[in-house]
Model the fold of this input.
Amino acid sequence: MQTTTCRLAYLDWLRALAILGIFLFTAARPFTPPATSEQPDQVNYMLNSSCIPLLFFLSGAASLHMALKRNNTKMVLLWIRRLLAPLLTSLFGLLPLLIWLGHWESGSTGTLWSYYGTAVKQALHPANWYHLWVVVCLALYMVMMLPLFRWLRKASARKFQQSLLWFVPGQRIFLLLLPIAALFITGLLLGSSGHLLVFLYWWLLVVLGFFCMMQPQLMDSLERNRRYSLILLLIAVSLVIAGQNYHAGPLAALMMEPVHAGLWVFCLTGYGKRYLDHEHRLRTYVNLFAWPFYLLQQPLIIIIAGFVLNWQYPPVLEYIFVTLSSWLLAVIIFNVLIKPFVITRFFFGVKPGTPPVATGKVVKVQLPQSEFFY
Done:
């Protein structure tokens, strides 16, 4: 399998922007009215249609490089460090703390230690996972991708890589969205379980990112067709808005969802490859900070918003305060409690720093090139 494994700056910046978008949407949730049949949850819809699909697509693209540089044993160790350890940290640390704080704010008494067992049982229930369902899905997807990782080193993979060139000319790249839309619509027509449908839907986005990175000219095609992606995205958004304003049936809206999400991914990836493929000294820090920030952002938002919602200020000012204070606290926690220590780096999925290199009387610490997401 002949594919370059150098780091691509635009993937790192797009991943950071996707997590930033998830953060901004999550911070808006406390200030939006509950969803009803007449007034759907617009924040959740935009989150599931743009940032989360992009995150899964980028994860699939990055997994190709991870698999090419590592054998099966190293891939398992990387999976434990980048996905399993942060997931366990959240399920047995962050979420129980968040549940206990909600229990304490409701007027109940008792310390965290006395309530910890009950909090852990509640944290292990999928209904209380909040943002962690993305981590759970990624952990399962990487296990499901193992056959593809092994297949990469076979001759059939090279033949398949060449066959993907058919999608490069013109606007054929958009045909890659058809399998995703077909699965989604078929599941709706057959009445399959909603959770299973969403799980397979996100997995196809991971596989799509894997194949687009497997044949780099597909990424070049996304960059070349970025304007077409934007035009089609605007049309899809207009149809979605028109359907909601004129009370179109839920089936019609759901059938538009996979195309809508795929166009968001193609548009953002195309423009990101064109304008964000530049090196910057902050990129190493952003890569280290992005994953812990994703784990910390929702607990911090929920805690801070619990106090801010009692204030008598315009919602816009309260939203700005929640956003800035949550981000600032996450930066402080990362720099003070996570980044300096090997054990906390491991539990939050941060690559361990390389040991100091002594040169005479001066000790220089080499900054690590963080791995991409997992």
